[in-house]
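Changelog-linked ticket: NDP example.
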Amino acid sequence: MTPTSLVALVTGGSRGLGKNMALALARKGIDVLLTYNSQQAEAQAVVAEIEQLGRKAAALQLNVGESQNFAGFFAQVQAVLRNTFQTDKLNFLINNAGIGIHAPFASTTEAQFDQLVNIHLKGPFFLTQQALPLLADGGRIINISTGLARFALPGYAAYAAMKGAVEVLTRYQAKELGMRGITVNTVAPGAIETDFGGGAVRDNANINQFLASQTALGRVGRPDDIGGVVAFLCSEEAGWVNAQRLEASGGMFL
Ligand code: NDP
């Protein structure tokens, strides 16, 4: 099959940062297959928005914490690529989906740890592994980390440890996939106003003001601060950027 355009798979594209990434990619002329976990209507609204931009789009359900379902998911991906995108390859994989759990180290439960490890580490690890046959040579993988992997704020020991592991994984993936011309980079957002963690950064004035005061640019981030960074890493100009951690935080905790 001759691909008509480039296609990105964005996990967690129904809301927040993933939605912003999906739209930013579409504005760069890239077609988008996005996933959602529970919010099908929001995902379909993003699909409609991308189509209004003149790009192809589709949404599939995926829980990234359930790796036992990944084989079935990729069977669906193959069918959608063929039927909706008229191609048999993905060009970009954006591992974005995730949740926040705020818990002090001393009282983090095994259940919380397991949920975070499944969604933020095991999920992206095996999702990417199983995506490899569908990923075009010369493709790009972008893993979403967090500023919290560089600086420490109380309550994020387990969450940030998973993201730190993803940053290490990024370098190993870059090393092992370079022979196929595939680049792998991490984008690490600072605190951004989304639904993440119950929407605390957006809705809790004290948290918002504290984080803004610790940010060189004097405010917390908005989804629009992130989508374009991911789109840049998927652009021709960024082809030589590999195995890097790109923090987009407005300069937090410098
Ligand atoms: P949101 O809560 O706004 O959106 C989360 C997205 O992930 C939704 O699309 C949701 O799907 C999806 N999702 C949640 N759980 C799962 C799951 N188990 N399987 C598959 N999809 C799931 O969060 P953000 O957009 O803010 O966060 C996106 C990424 O950015 C996460 O990896 C997060 O750790 C990271 N991040 C966020 C920061 C912030 O301050 N907001 C800062 C740094 C990093 P659905 O809509 O169907 O529920």
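Closing comment: Example verified and attached. The beta strands are 7-10, 31-36, 57-61, 90-95, 135-144, 183-189, 245-248. Residues 185 and 243 are 5 Å apart (CA to CA).
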